Amino acid sequence: MANATENRSDSYRPSGGMIKRFPVLADEVLVYGGIVSVNADGFLKNAADAANETCVGVCLEYIDATGDTSGDQYAAVDVGGAEVKATHEDGSMTQANVGDAVVQQLNNEVTSAGTGTNDIPAGVISEIVSATEVWVKLRPFGVAS
Predict the structure, then answer these.
(1) Parallel, antiparallel, or unpaired for β 109-112 and 83-88?
(2) End-to-end CA distance of the chain, in Å?
(3) Among 75, 81, 84, 142, which residue carries the largest CB count within 10 Å?
(4) Residue 98's closest CA among 116, 122, 123, 118?
(5) CA distances from 57 to 47, 103, 106 (A)
(6) CA distance 88 to 82
């Protein structure tokens, strides 16, 4: 699968909590409703299963930083523990998977904790849409696990 490249307005349920602005990594294209993380240098980017990243929440705007220097643009992020609809890489999801911990894979995809290469905590499954699609309750930014 690949990162979503268009806004995902039907895939985001606000946390009602804090909104924080982060400087965007050079050449990233972020979408509204996409899962985002910060890299080791503190720049916002699409979530990925990559070393030294921290899941921060859901992006609240479309940002195209193509050709920019890191930090030229800022994006607002719902960091309060929003819900986001995502594809589940493992598939075969059932009601019994509600409450299972998931880790970030892409801006629109998660997988089961313990199966990702870097296992970057994202949150827990809060609702099953289908065998391959779930709603994830993201952990609020700043919560260690």
Answers:
(1) parallel
(2) 26
(3) 84
(4) 123
(5) 9, 12, 12
(6) 17
Task: Describe the chain by its helix, strand, coil percentages, rounded to 5.
Answer: 5, 40, 55
Contact 86, 133 (CB under 8 A): yes
Per-residue pLDDT tens over the stretch 18-50:
999 999 999 999 999 999 999 999 999 999 999
Query: Tokens in use for 134?
Result: 């779930």
Amino acid letter, residue 2: A
What is residue 11's three-state secondary structure? helix
Record the tokens describing residue 79, joined without a space. Answer: 């960091």
Question: What does the buried/exposed string (b/e) look like for 24-33 if buried means 16 or more CB atoms within 10 Å of the residue's CB?
Answer: bbeebbbbbb
54-59 sheet: strands from edge to edge: 19-23, 74-78, 54-59, 35-38, 44-46
Find how far residue 60's CA is from the centre of its chain: 11
pTM of the model: 0.96
* 3-class secondary structure, 9: helix
